[in-house]
Amino acid sequence: MVTNPKAKGLPLACQQWLKRLLARGERFAIPEIADYEVRRELLRANLLKSVHRLDNLKQTLEYIPIQTETMVLAAKLWAEARQTGQPTADAKALDGDIILSAQALLLADETTEVIVATTNVGHLSRFITACDWQLIN
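Below the sequence we write its predicted structure tokens.
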């Protein structure tokens, strides 16, 4: 939403929200899995202005690359979700929600609150109560 050059409605509100919080000095980061999911759709739709805006955003905000530790935790979360009958994606899918959840969990600690800004609360909310992080919808 924040890369939409002709933002109206919810995307515009999202852009304004981000600008307000950045002006207050809040820390924002782009998880690599989120960049991947947004970028692939922008490229598929040939929205090159938005791809350029995403590239610029990556230069402005912190970027969180996917680390081995993230993927190890994501595999554990993926297995647990399936063992409890609560998968977040098809069994053959990469499952970006699980990878994002793992990144958020690894960033959160006693001094760092992690907030995931998303419109996909359904899948991600399965990890909130157990993992003590929030979603902004």
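Residues 128-137 have pLDDT under 50 and may be disordered.
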